[in-house]
Amino acid sequence: MDILKVSGAVKDYGRFRLDNVSLALPQGCIMGLIGENGAGKSTLIKWMLGLVKRDAGEIFYNGKPLNVNDKAQMEQIGVVFDALHFPETFTAVQIGKLHEGLYRNWDSACYSRYLERFSLPEKEAVKGFSKGMQMKLGIACALSHGAKLLILDEPTAGLDPIARDDLMEVFLDFVQDETNGILLSTHITADLEKVADYVTFLHEGKVQFTHPKDMLRDEFRIVRCGEAAFQKLREENGAVWRKMDFQYEVLLPDGVHLQEKYPDCTFDRPTIDEIMLLYVKGGTAQ
Amino acid sequence: MKSLILKDIRLVQKTLLPSLVLIILLAVISGITTTPEDSMFSIYPAVLAFVTSVTTFRNTFYFDDTSTFMQYAFVTPATRKQYVSARYLYMLITLLILTLPGLAVNLLVSWISVGNTFMLMEFLVETVIMLLMALVYNIWTAALAIRFNSRTASMLIIPILFGIIAFAGLMVFLSLHFKQMWISFAGGIFLILLSIGAFVMSYVWIEKKEF
User: Fold this and answer.
1) What does the mean pLDDT of chain A come to?
2) Chain B partners of A76 at a C-beta cutoff of 8 Å?
């Protein structure tokens, strides 16, 4: 069952349009939402959470239409944006008290455990927190009210690798419960290589692909070749490519099956970054 | 909703508490010094309550704008309507906090010092007038801060306030000139209706607000 399903999401700003975006996040999974700045990741998250007017499309949470005015549904959704949204003079304890009133299922003991796990001071104003500490506090809040679905918008931006690794462990712990799910929007694709089950790539407001991460790793290939091989690849396969100084780079979604057919080319496993780069900066073969 | 109100009170408590102490002090002085011939001093606690109420109320919107708390609040189980209602309840609570202790102290002091309630009546009338003014001013501030943001609201509220004062002055002038008191009453009712309109619109605008 899909914990989150978006179907035909449209938000038109005139200068930018979130165009018919659909995705489905199965229970027990982490989906990475990737894309360049301005691709529409944050707009999609705002669309999902009702922070912008939905021009078209539907959203379902565990099979039921998501209604942001439904308290029971919103109890089960934890959200972390790319910055802390609490008054900067508040301490972690005061922020906990604020949430205690907002969430019926707020678990103060769980919150205290996360503060301890993340080594966050309880009685220091959050304005003195580093970016990493602020994001950890946001995540502690999102995890302390029995949420089943986490929607995270760039939660690891600006964090050092150690802090990011800590958070990835927390996310993996969270989806140990197979009825939970995480939608994780990020620029840092290395994080997704570690934890994501699915990757959805947004470019200019449109979904370019949604694939299991293993498929990107096991089946996608970057082919590096010369002019003649490139022309052949271009004619025979639908692909994205870009010209480098001395060679062509071609992304083949089913590249793993084509290795024998093109013995003169070098086939490499692409990283998510390389896939994104080719889609954004490359041309299309057809 | 309770936690939203408490959040706002916590945010402004550093401004609220010194003002409250000063209001009580002024209420004591007013209770001692006010006479039927000179009741000027009794207005100061009321004015201070008005100023504290409007500045702290505006500041809560400013704090929410700078921390973008409003956006966060709407992804929690708190609804948009609850957010606005919490704001108005917070405003009423702080207005009571800023006026009731002053009134009680003034009553006590004027009774002890001169044994009559004239000073209290002066104080009471001025407090009620300031309280109503703060109510109207804050409702307009809330509506504008929700429709735009706290910064724009601060800029727009001043011409609106002067407009209201000019309008009220015109109504009084017309009622005196034509010897028709109903003109003043009609003006007052018109202003009250405008404030009710702003109150209703704050609920309409919050539902349409995008982030």
Assistant:
1) 93
2) none
- Which residues in chain A have their CB less than 8 angstroms from residue B7's CB? 87, 98
Asked if residue A182 lies in contact with residue A77, where contact means CB atoms within 8 angstroms, the answer is no
Contacts of B74 in chain A (CB under 8 A): 49-51, 68
In terms of Cβ atoms closer than 10 Å to its own Cβ (0-12, 13-18, 19+), residue A86 is buried
B67 vs A contacts (CB less than 8 Å): 84-88
pLDDT confidence band for B146 (50 / 70 / 90): very high
- Say what the pLDDT of residue B120 is: 66
Query: From CA B20, how far away is CA B43, in angstroms rounded?
Result: 15
Q: Is the dihedral of CA A165, B73, A33, A282 positive or negative?
A: negative
Q: Would you say residue B182 has pLDDT above 90?
A: no
Question: What distance in Å separates the CA atoms of residue B102 and residue B30, rounded to the nearest whole number?
Answer: 10
Indicate the domain borders of chain B. Answer: 2-208
- In this structure, what token pair is assigned to residue B184? 């003043």
Contacts of A17 (CB under 8 A, 6+ apart): A10, A11, A205
Contact A87 B4 (CB under 8 A): no
Which domains, ranges and CATH numbers included, belong to chain A? 2-213 (3.40.50.300), 219-284 (no CATH)
Residue to substitute from B70, B75, B90, interface A, most A β-carbons within 10 A: B75
- Whole-number pLDDT of residue A286: 45
pLDDT confidence tier of residue A33, bands split at 50, 70 and 90: very high
Nearest to B76 among A83, A88, A103 (CB): A103
Q: Measured between CB atoms, does A83 come within 8 Å of chain B?
A: yes
What is the pLDDT at residue B127?
A: 83
Q: Does residue A47 sit at the B interface (CB-CB below 8 Å)? A: no
Per-residue model confidence as pLDDT tens digits over B87-131: 999 999 999 999 999 888 888 887 787 666 666 677 788 888 888
Task: Write out pLDDT tens, residues B4-40.
Answer: 999 999 999 888 999 999 999 998 888 787 776 776 7
**Measured between CB atoms, does A97 come within 8 Å of chain B?**
yes
What secondary structure letter does DSSP report for B53? H
CB of A253 within 8 A of CB of A275? no
Dihedrals phi, psi of A119, to nearest 5 degrees:
55, 45
Name the nearest CA neighbour of A101 among B71, B9, B76, B64. Answer: B76
Chain B residues contacting A via beta carbons under 8 Å: 1-4, 6-7, 10-11, 63, 67-69, 71-79, 208, 210-211
Dig out the tokens for A43 from the structure.
């707009």
A286 vs B134: which has the higher pLDDT: B134
